Amino acid sequence: MAAPLIGDGRVLGVLEVLDPSPRARTDIRELDLLAMFARQAAAALRMAAYAPAGAGAPEPGGRLGPRQRADALRLLDSLEQLLREPC
């Protein structure tokens, strides 16, 4: 499944979720959940793009600082746990 990350009327990227399960289990609830995460991710990208230097925005070159990396890893872990929950 994939959903566009849209901000300010333009595509900022794509959020893709791969399911290693041999059975396809995509339904409207999962698509809605993916769309919700895509909107959140797009909002975070917009905030990072407009944040002043030193305000938690990525370092020059697009690299995350230690704090931002830890926050991103926690977010990914939470998303993984949520997606692993039985429907």
Automatic annotation (TrEMBL):
Task: Give me the segments passing through the membrane.
Answer: none
Q: Ranges for the GAF domain?
A: 1-45
Q: Identify the domain of life.
A: Bacteria
The UniProt entry, under InterPro entries, shows:
GAF, GAF-like_dom_sf
Query: Could you tell me what this protein is called?
Result: GAF domain-containing protein
* Organism (species): Streptomyces atratus
